[in-house]
Design a protein that fits this description.
mainly beta; single chain; Hedgehog/Intein (Hint) domain-containing protein; three-stranded antiparallel beta sheet; two-stranded antiparallel ribbon
Length: 65
């Protein structure tokens, strides 16, 4: 979800404002790790949750589930 509405990750660009669980964040960069795998890099640290479990931090290191 962006400040301007829903966009597929393929259309996101650095500078876009993304709505996260932690609030509005400005996208700094998008790393393409592999086909259909993206890592969004924000100006501030961002934690990513899946099913209520913390799975990745801005450092890019996964957390054990």
């Amino acid at each position: 979800m962006t400040a301007d509405g829903i966009l597929p990750v393929e259309y996101l660009e650095p500078g876009d404002r993304i709505i996260t669980r932690a609030g509005m964040r400005r996208l700094r960069d998008i790393d393409t790790l592999a086909p259909k795998r993206f890592k969004l890099v924000f100006e501030r640290e961002e934690a990513i949750y899946a099913g209520g479990i913390l799975v990745m931090s801005e450092s890019g290191l996964p957390f054990a589930a």
